[in-house]
From TrEMBL:
CDD domains the UniProt entry points to: SCO
Listed InterPro entries: SCO1/SenC, Thioredoxin-like_sf
Protein name as it appears in the record: SCO family protein
Family membership: Belongs to the SCO1/2 family.
Coiled-coil residue windows: none
Amino acid sequence: MIARTRTILLGLAVAALALGGGFAARQLMDSRTVSTAVGTELGAPFELVDHTGAPITEAAFEGRPSLLFFGFTHCPEICPTTVYDMETWLTELDVAPDALGAFFVTIDPERDTPEFLADYLEPQSERIIGITGAPEDVWAMAKSWRVYFQKRPLGEGEYTMDHYASVFVLNTEGQVVDLIGFGENPEIAKAKIASVL
């Protein structure tokens, strides 16, 4: 019975990996890749714009702790849920806006203009800053954080984006000290945030 259960579980794991575009398989692989870099420096200098159109650089991630998430506004579930969760965690922890930065970097800059990001973020949060810019520059920035993303065609010119789904928890030097996985227990997520405050 135990051997049969193991065989079934192994088969399911192989099937998930074979799907390639599946969220669960991608999340497992990407978490393993990024988690090896916790405590080390990720990222490279960049010059992009925030959701108000103002210039923003890597300096935004320094001088105070930050939460950093890579997503896109046309995302049906993961991204809106994560934006809601980030705002909820910070509200429940009673974190002042100037005590911790919160950033949403689009991995779909072709559609996510500053105006589009503003319309998406501002109704949900007054503290989460959207980041976008020229596609090549945005993608270079995401790659410097070792973030997985890939355009997946849906037909008739439409597409979605597969992407890494965890929130980076950064210290005051802009280094990754922890990750908050999608759907993580809220108390655990808040403890991870509190540890850098």
